[in-house]
TrEMBL record:
It catalyses: L-threonylcarbamoyladenylate + adenosine(37) in tRNA = N(6)-L-threonylcarbamoyladenosine(37) in tRNA + AMP + H(+). Substrate binds at T134, V135, S136, G137, G138, D167, G180, D184, N275. This is tRNA N6-adenosine threonylcarbamoyltransferase. Its EC number is 2.3.1.234. GO terms for molecular function: tRNA N(6)-L-threonylcarbamoyladenine synthase activity. InterPro entries: ATPase_NBD, Gcp-like_dom, KAE1/TsaD, Peptidase_M22_CS, TsaD. It is found in: Cytoplasm. Belongs to the KAE1 / TsaD family.
Amino acid sequence: MNYTILAIESSCDETSAAVCINGKIQSNIIATQTVHQKYGGVVPELASRAHQQHIIPVVNQAITEAKITKNDLHAVAFTRGPGLLGALLVGSSFAKALALGLKIPLIGVNHMQAHILAHFIDDPAPRFPFLCLTVSGGHTQIVKVNDYLDMQIIGETQDDAVGEAFDKTAKLLDLPYPGGPLIDKYAQSGDPKAFTFPNVDMPGLSFSFSGIKTSFMYFLRDKTLQRSDFIQNNLPDICASIQHTLIQILMKKLVKASKETGIQEIAIAGGVSANSGLRKQLTETGALYNWKVYIPKFEYCTDNAAMIAMAAHYKALAGQFASQDVTPLPRMDF
Ligand code: KG4
Ligand code: ZN
């Protein structure tokens, strides 16, 4: 059966809608919320309100760009979790109402699985089984992907996510939220070996990023007298060194995971996979270990509804529809 699916993403601070016809993305509209910048992080209540403002125009634009009408839809998909409860509620309530009005089924999608399935939007797609390092503002996971809907987390962070480590260190450097892309930008002209930041080596395939944040805080505290001068004079070197440290932690566990599983098809996904240093390092490490690496297009790294639509396509093919009493799950597991 050919499915025409409207997908909605509203888990954090992007309101997005996409249309997918038989597994091919026809439109992907993203409204990024800028209201959070002055608060240095996402404010959940403001995120919910901004989703409410954006959702109707974003959905209308996705449908228009796909050159269809609402009556052509076979299903409405939405991000069920993980994410902010209020933000998820806006997307899920809208999806439910629309599906009810059109008398079509609903599909609830796991946001983290969708980040991984973004690799199937365009060719070349990874072959099963593959490993995916999923790195975002809320998660850091190594996932063994056996099939489209059969995934297993084999390693994850025990505290902060790596995106959080990027954003929190950026905040200590007085950079605006989200700081990850700015660290990336300044790092490009800096020396990655200029400074070192101690971190704890976690057992197995687990990660920990809270220690780096603390050692970075002490590093800056020790420069208290001339703190702002020090930052101003060394910003590229500081950013390059922080980024290098974070990437080394990620790559070490990824190499270990590949050795332990014998899998050499390796992908990255999630907002931090937009990081130019991580993309370059993955290519280099991949060449060293003979991996086949898969790096998503920039537009599919950070939150978007095209990935939700792709996941929904595979769920529709597997007959995995949700009923009208489905609820959002802020801490949704695989
Ligand atoms: O996947 P995503 O859009 O949202 C979540 O599901 O969390 O990821 C957002 C995270 C933020 O922490 C942001 O700073 C980080 O991805 N990020 C980056 C870059 N672009 C986005 N981190 C480092 N370098 C980048 N270029
Ligand atoms: Zn995400």
